[in-house]
Amino acid sequence: MMKAAGCSMIASLNPVHCVKIQNHCRFSSGIVLGRLANPKKVCSCTSRSLCTASSMVVQRYHPPLFSVAPMMEWTDNHYRTLARLLSKHAWLYTEMIAAETIVYQEGNLDRFLGFSPDQHPIVLQIGGSNLENIAKATKLANSYGYDEINFNCGCPSPRVVGHGCFGVRLMLDPKFVGEAMSVIAANTDVPVTVKCRIGVDDRDSYNELCDFIYKVSSSSPTKHFIIHSRKALLNGISPAENRTIPPLKYEYYFGLLRDFPDLRFTVNGGINTIAEVNAARAAGAHGVMVGRAAFYNPWQTLGLVDTAVYGAAPSGITRRKVLEAFQVYGDSVIGKHGNNRPNIRDVVKPILNLFHSEPGNAVWKRKVDAAFHKCSTVTSLLEETLVNIPDWVLDSSVVKPLPDREDLFSNVQSLIPPLYTAREPESAYV
């Protein structure tokens, strides 16, 4: 039986409204997903009625020891709903949203910025190269109650660094980044952060990275940097290749910990398991950001975060319980934007990897793909397909993390570059 508390997972992408949830039927496999004894009205908030948003912002959350990287077309509301069902403490990021999108879509902001209060702690990542638009976008986003605002200086996509002239290309202009961060900070009451690479093309020395960190932090209120420990190559390779071809240089990240003791750094890139997350933290990392591994294998990553990273007591969560809550959310948002958007395929996308490497997973995915053509709700789709997943898989709690590359950072201290000597402070922010 679905508990009423699970209803709070409904995320509104429209102005405040109530969604009436009807009783849902039983799956052919005999399990019940989202079946309520009585219909409930569930309210969710957007900027038009903040409800608890203001108090949510001032609450103290656990520090960002673990965060999920912002990923275009991946870390949308649907994925973040699943992620929060699996972990109460992981920090979640939106997809990167261009400042111009926020400014030009002012009348439709809930579609781009709305989220359920359950998604806290959550960070809005914006990108742009126009200070006026960055300021306007920050003001418009401020009322939604995000816990931090992050500025993208790491995306290598040709669409971003070429036509948009922002993303990782901004690492070549730390003066502008400092100005942008000051503009963002002046228009919000929450912390501001930067996500960047360790370099761009042949501008990839450790000293050049330190120059960037120093200039941005000394000319703006930025005190937290998320470091993707690869440089970016802008000579025609794809974004996917930019995640694999440039070598990882974790020694640069750990050098920053030594040379900027007053700043906070989160390491990103090449870390795929909870064992590796804890290895990074044991080596001294302030925080760890995981990207595609948290999407492709959410159960064995996000499902372990609260206990293995934050030390929380086991919640007893199972994938059956996760799907009970997710199907209520999913059925409430299908078609909300009109023209069947989002459609069932959009909404279900994040749960397709929930049974990664489990018995029945391959068959289940094939059945789901076929069911997209005739099912119009998440409920009916799961009723038709979950019979292919064994009950013991659905009802088992997440297991402890398995040992995996625990020596990933064992020799990093011997590779750290020579000490960086900072220049004179550029402003009063130091």
- Give the N-to-C terminal Cα separation: 55 Å
- Let me know the number of strands: 11
Tally the helices: 17
Question: Roughly how many Å is the radius of gyration?
Answer: 22 Å
> Structural class from helices and strands?
alpha/beta
Coarse shape: globular
Task: Give the low-confidence spans.
Answer: 1-58
Description:
The structure is a single chain. The protein has 430 residues and is an alpha/beta fold. The chain has 17 helices and eleven strands. It has helices at 53-58, 77-86, 99-104, 109-113, 131-142, 158-163, 174-186, 206-218, 250-259, 274-282, 293-296, 298-309, 319-333, 344-348, 361-371, 378-385, 391-395; strands at 17-21, 40-44, 66-68, 92-93, 97-98, 122-127, 148-153, 192-196, 224-228, 264-268, 287-290. Strands 3, 4, 5, 6, 7, 8, 9, 10 and 11 form a nine-stranded parallel sheet that branches. Strands 1-2 form a two-stranded antiparallel sheet. Helix 2 (77-86) runs antiparallel to helix 13, helix 7 (174-186) runs parallel beside helix 8 (206-218) and helix 15 (361-371) packs across helix 16. The protein is globular.
